[in-house]
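Help!! Second protein's tokens look totally different from the first
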Amino acid sequence: MALASLAASLPIAAAAARFRFGVRFRGMASASAAGAATGAPARVGVVQMTSVGDVNANYATCSRLTKEAAASGVKFLCFPEVFSFIGSKDGESVKLAEPLDGPIMQRYCSLAKESGMWLSLGGFQEKGPDDSHQYNTHVLIDDSGKVRSSYRKIHLFDVDVPGNMVYKESRFTTAGDTIVAVDSPFGRLGLTVCYDLRFPELYQILRFKHEAQVLLVPSAFTKVTGEAHWEILLRARAIETQCYVIAAAQAGKHNEKRESYGDSIIIDPWGTVIAQLPDRLSTGFAVADLDLSKVEAVRTRMPIAEHRKFDSDWKSLTHQ
């Protein structure tokens, strides 16, 4: 199946869909989305892992899982946020940050090519606008080893987690300003990262303005917030957008200071969990076959796109 060109880049205003924070949209012209992938079900995998402060050790884990997934017939493998490095000291990741054509990402491009597999690499430490900041970037690589698209995390995690610790992602990370959706052999993909999950308007825009069929949510949720909200938020995003959701998660203790919730999961457009690892600590991957005819069936039987009375920024409602 031929892929349409991925080069188009449109501001949201041009598509009459201004995101209220001034965020732009980058992706295919929307007319191409419906035809992105309507053939046989595609086998995808969602990874769960415990990244550490060693780039080579993390790559070894990712490489092993990619090769195992390829042997299982997986054509698209999704890794969690900060898959390549989680440090124990403030500022470590900024010092390691590289451009997308740097040696770390090129190593993963070679892995995708060698495995004949698309990779979703969520939460890469991309070199930022200055020496004190990085971008938290979700990178999509195709099976030829080419970076097809990237998304810089928009919503940064500046939170005082009850009973846990204070997180200030913006101290070392610059927020992105572009919403990204892209066609692939696995459907039209909406790219997000972790804390974005708590902002449903982003997912509404991806679905209703830019026709996403599959939402990617690579994450490193804290144990406290994950136990309370992880699965219910993911299922809500699937149900309200009628999209598949693939959420790769970091799991367990990375170091003395940081622990992630785990629970990598794939959810169908009806909100049903269709793939999940057996526990929240194991390193491995779960597999599911994405059938885009199910997306269309759910949307046809419950045509919420036709019934919506306002757009995602609520501007068409009357305020009193």
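Here's the second one for comparison:
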Amino acid sequence: MSRKVPFEATLEVRDTCLCLHVQRAARALARRFDEALRPVGLTHGQFSLLNALNRPQPATLGAVARLLVMDRTTVTAALKPLERDGLVSIQADPSDRRSRLLTLTGKGLETLASAVPIWRETHAALEAGLVPSSPDGLRAALLALC
């Protein structure tokens, strides 16, 4: 009992699917930022994670997961190489030993400080190419989907 989907449906999805277009754009942006951040030894995901930890007080794993819209298991896995490389410190929370507190180390702060100018330059170049759309309009539209 074979049902056929007309090729026109494939074209419709290709041309109109918001999820597909956002995924494609996300992959293209990720590649661009990965390449730009390579000189400081970071991927775009690691940069985002280090940036999420750049705060006055240590962050909890849950707070970082919520900020990055990731599950805790994925954040934990992403932290392992950063901890191994000495960029992040993970300590038990003294007020709740089940919770973990995440902080940037001195090396992590230095790496982030080296990466931010690269991110700014890459980001500015990408925003400049968003014509005729405004970067703020794009951000608002994408945030509305969350």
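Reply: Different proteins will give different token patterns, so don't panic. Residues 15-125 form a domain with the Arc Repressor Mutant, subunit A fold (CATH 1.10.10.10).
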